[in-house]
Specification:
Elements: E1 4-9, E2 11-12, E3 15-16, H1 19-34, E4 37-44, H2 48-54, E5 62-66, H3 75-89, E6 93-97, H4 100-112, E7 117-127, E8 130-137, E9 142-146, E10 154-158, E11 177-181, E12 211-215, H5 225-235, E13 238-241, H6 243-247, E14 268-272, H7 278-284, E15 289-294, E16 307-310, H8 313-328
Parallel strand pairs: 1-4, 1-6, 4-5, 5-11, 6-10, 7-10, 12-13, 12-14, 14-15, 15-16
Antiparallel strand pairs: 2-3, 7-8, 8-9
Helix pairs in contact: 3-4, 5-8
Length: 329
C-alpha cells in the first residue's frame, strides 16, 4: 500500500475555504512525485455537502468527520476529533492550509500525538527519498528547506498562495466518501463559541479576493487613492496597499499586503506605484497574474510581474478605468 497524505480541509457553515483547494493541489503534486496517495477529511456537523464537493477532486477517499460537538469550531473539539481519527488511520503526512483557524488548533493536535509541525510552508522539494518543506525566514529574505525527524504522522501547513487552487486535479469519478462519527466529549471543550465575529464594514479578508488593486508610495497623496479605488470598483475587486500606505493611515491596516499584513493569492493583482520590496512581494507573489505599473523601469516588482507598464500611473490608470467600464457595458 502506498503512503497516504491526508489533507484536512477547512469549512465554515458547510462552505469550504478556498485555500483548502490549494492544499489539495499541493498534496496531489507530492503524491504524484513520491508515488503516494492523497485523501481528504473535513470536520464539523452536517458537512456531507462539503465532503461531496471534495470528492470531485482526484483523491483516493474523503472522510466526513461528524459530531454535534463540532458544529461550532473550538480548538479542543477539533483537536480531539482529529487526534482520534489520525490515530486510527495513521496517514504518513497531514497537510493543512495555514489559516487562522488551523494556526489555532494544529500545534495542539500535533503535540497531542507527540509530533512536531512545520508551519507556513511555501513549497516542497524531493531530495532523494526525503521530502523537504520550504519555509521563509527573516520576512522572506531567506528560505530554509526543513525535513522531519522521528516517526510519522508528520504535520505541515501551506501558506496561502503556495499552490494554485485551480490546479487541483479533478476526479474522473467521484472519490468514495466515508462518514466517521467522532467521539468528542463536550465536557472537555473549555471554550464556548459566541456569534461568529463580523468585521467592521471597512474591513476585508483579502485572502478571499479574486481581484486586488494595490497601491504604494507612487500614489503620492492620500486623495489619489480614489483613482485606485475607482479601478478596483470597475473590476469588481478589492483595494489593498503596501505597508507605507497603511503606516501613514491612508488606508486601514486590514488592507495591507505583505509579511506584516495579509498574504494573498488572487487571480489578478494590480500593483500601482509599488516598487516591490521583499516584504511586500512575500505577501502577493502567489498571485495568478501580476500587473505592475511603475515609472521606475528598474523597480523590483517587474521581476515577478507577468505584465509590466513603465509609466506614470496617473496617465495610465484613468484611461484603463474607462476601458474596463466600456468592456462591461
Amino acid at each position: 500500500m502506498p503512503e497516504t497524505i491526508l489533507v484536512v480541509a477547512e469549512q465554515h457553515a458547510g462552505k469550504l475555504n478556498r485555500v483548502s483547494w490549494e492544499t489539495i493541489a499541493g498534496a496531489q503534486a507530492i503524491a504524484a512525485e513520491f508515488g503516494w496517495q492523497a485523501e481528504a477529511a473535513v470536520a464539523g456537523s452536517g458537512i456531507g455537502a462539503a465532503a461531496s464537493e471534495l470528492a470531485g477532486k482526484k483523491l483516493a477517499k474523503v472522510y466526513a468527520i461528524e459530531s454535534p460537538a463540532l458544529a461550532d469550531y473550538t480548538p479542543d473539539g477539533f483537536a480531539a476529533a482529529l487526534k482520534q481519527f489520525i490515530g486510527e488511520k495513521k496517514p504518513h503526512l497531514v497537510l493543512m492550509p495555514h489559516t487562522y483557524q488551523v494556526r489555532d488548533f494544529a500545534p495542539k493536535l500535533a503535540t497531542s500525538l507527540g509530533r512536531c509541525l512545520i508551519p507556513d510552508c511555501i513549497g516542497y522539494k524531493k531530495d532523494g527519498n526525503r521530502l523537504l518543506f520550504t519555509r521563509q525566514m527573516f520576512q522572506g529574505k531567506f528560505a530554509a528547506d526543513v525535513s522531519f525527524a522521528g516517526e510519522p504522522p508528520y504535520f505541515a501547513t501551506f501558506q496561502n498562495g503556495a499552490f494554485r487552487g485551480d490546479k487541483a486535479e479533478a476526479a474522473s469519478a467521484p472519490a468514495p466518501v466515508e462518514t466517521v462519527s467522532a467521539n468528542v466529549d463536550a465536557g472537555a471543550i473549555r471554550t464556548k463559541p459566541h456569534e461568529w465575529f463580523k468585521e467592521a464594514k471597512q474591513a476585508v479578508d483579502l485572502t478571499q479576493a479574486e481581484i486586488i488593486v494595490s497601491v504604494g508610495r507612487g500614489i503620492k497623496e492620500q486623495k489619489n487613492i480614489d483613482i485606485a479605488k475607482q479601478l478596483a470598483d470597475a473590476l469588481g475587486g478589492e483595494l489593498a496597499a503596501s505597508r507605507p500606505i497603511c503606516d501613514s493611515g491612508w488606508l486601514p491596516m486590514d488592507r495591507q499586503v505583505g509579511s506584516s499584513g495579509q498574504t494573498v493569492a488572487p487571480k489578478l493583482y494590480l500593483a500601482l506605484g509599488i516598487s516591490g520590496a521583499i516584504q511586500h512581494i512575500v505577501g502577493m507573489k502567489g498571485s495568478r497574474t501580476i500587473i505592475a505599473i511603475n515609472k521606475d523601469a528598474e523597480a523590483p516588482i517587474f521581476e515577478i510581474a507577468d505584465y509590466g507598464v513603465v509609466g506614470n500611473l496617473f496617465d495610465i490608470v484613468p484611461p484603463l478605468i474607462e476601458e474596463v467600464k466600456k468592456a462591461k457595458s
